[in-house]
Design brief:
This protein is of the alpha+beta class and 147 residues long. Helices cover 31% and strands 38% of the residues. It has 3 helices and 8 strands. Strands 1, 2, 3, 4, 5, 6, 7 and 8 form an 8-stranded mixed beta sheet that branches. Strand 3 and strand 4 form a beta hairpin.
Length: 147
């Protein structure tokens, strides 16, 4: 594995549609890409114990999380024929309906992009020390359980 530069994946607050559009737009000049796949994680307004989630407050053990994101990146480049990959995750409060996770992979062929994107998202959910505190409309909260 070649050692690639570590990227900052954390964004304060929600990941905006403009940020996502700009990221996609920056790839239009890369003519060696044949396919992209994107995963957008969005905060749901789940109802738990008769209370509606209005936001999630994300926190992380940042140093370890950044290392895990780097390991996931290295693994993905070694397993799939990717041209590029971007991962962004929110920290802080993200309201229901807003984007909290953006995974964007590009490859010469669509199959590698599809397979890599799904694999990356599953690894993030299982390996990276990020926690979400669900905030309810009455301002009470509970720690989110990943599924």
């Amino acid at each position: 594995m070649t050692e690639k530069k570590k990227h900052n994946v954390f964004v304060n607050g929600a990941i905006t549609p403009n940020f996502i559009a700009d990221s996609i737009g920056k790839h239009s000049g890369k003519t060696n890409i044949g396919g992209h796949d994107i995963f957008l994680g969005q905060v749901r307004n789940d109802i738990i114990d008769d209370k509606t989630v209005v936001a999630i407050e994300y926190s992380a053990y940042q140093e370890m999380a950044e290392e895990k994101f780097h390991e996931i990146r290295e693994y993905a480049f070694s397993k799939y024929n990717l041209v590029c990959m971007h991962i962004y995750h929110s920290l802080g409060v993200v309201k229901a309906g807003e984007i909290c996770l953006f995974v964007f992979v590009s490859s010469k062929h669509r199959k590698d992009a599809f397979d890599a994107c799904r694999d990356i998202v599953e690894q993030i959910k299982s390996m990276v020390p990020i926690w979400g505190k669900e905030i309810f409309e009455d301002e009470s909260h509970t720690w989110k359980q990943n599924t």
